[in-house]
Amino acid sequence: MLPAEALELLACPRCTGPLSAGLSCAPCRRRYEAPDGIPDLRIASEGRTEAVRAFYTAAPFPGYPPHDSLWALRARAGRSDFARALDEAIPGDARVLELGCGTGQMSLFLASADRLVLGADLTRASLVLAVRHARSFQVNAHFVETDLRRPGVLPGAFDVVIASGVLHHTEDPRASFAAMARLVRPGGVVVLGLYHAFARLPHRLRRAIARATGYRFIPFDPVLRDRGAEPDRRAAWLRDQYQHVEEHRHTLSEVRGWFRENGVDYLRAFPSTLLDEEPPRGGALFTAAADDWPLENLLAQCRWAAALGREGGLFVTVGRRRA
């Protein structure tokens, strides 16, 4: 079971009322279970949401390499400019929620100092792996099974809410973002990673070739090449990137519209929309970009097709909820 400070952040997914230590909701008189120590706060879904859940139940993503360790996980994350910038920007005592955490790598990486990190996902099979590795690595990260459209966490309770590589697999990403934005406190930060409409084009070409050849030939995919000796993780990447049942692609201007609709001020994008800017360091990821010229933004997004297309075309938008 979760510790008291994490239980205090949970809520009834039906009425958003607080839950007792026994996962009971007084307002609607419901009680929830916690198999394997993972609270089950998911309301039964149907249609495309259930299809996505079944998809990741069959192949939890992204999975762990054989004989993984906390040192190795941190080393992998340290090679990512984005992961380093995110870790440097989050205060040491922050309450952090990762929506769609999958098998929990980012949650485990961020669970340092005195942070309270809660990972939430729709798929129990992924969460079981996350909890197993959290215990093995002796990392203070916690996990809950819930749907981000009706999340089992308290609104406005988190300093940072992250959803990277998640909302573009939901039926209505715009509505999903509205649900996400309600979870961060006024003055808190949202970090949203999505497939980019331009940067996804090289991958869509690879996917067309893969389908045409029955997945016997997939050119220029560095992740598949690097995972040649890890069949389970290679299969998980193949399914997630080439055979997904739900996928949407977005532009920066579209996401900024979602921010405005939900009282979130745009800060910056990652990679930067400034053509000569270095990756943010020392907490700069949570500060406003030095400039915001629409033409430069568009040119930068066109350049993302080359910079991001090799690994799927994911871009990140950062904003701060208005106080």
Please outline what is shown here:
With 323 residues, this protein is an alpha/beta fold.
Describe the overall structure:
- With 323 residues, this protein is an alpha/beta fold.
- It has a single domain, classed as Rossmann fold.
- Helices cover 36% and strands 17% of the residues.
- It has 12 helices and 9 strands.
- It has helices at 4-7, 47-58, 70-78, 81-89, 105-110, 124-137, 173-181, 201-212, 222-226, 231-242, 252-261, 294-308; strands at residues 24-25, 30-31, 95-99, 116-121, 141-145, 158-164, 184-195, 264-270, 314-321.
- The strands form 2 sheets. The chain has a 7-stranded mixed β-sheet with strand order 5-4-3-6-7-9-8, with helices on both faces.
- Strand 4 (116-121), helix 6 and strand 5 (141-145) form a beta-alpha-beta unit.
- Helix 7 (173-181) crosses helix 11.
- It starts with a helix and ends with a strand.
- The relative contact order is 0.14.
- The mean pLDDT is 95.
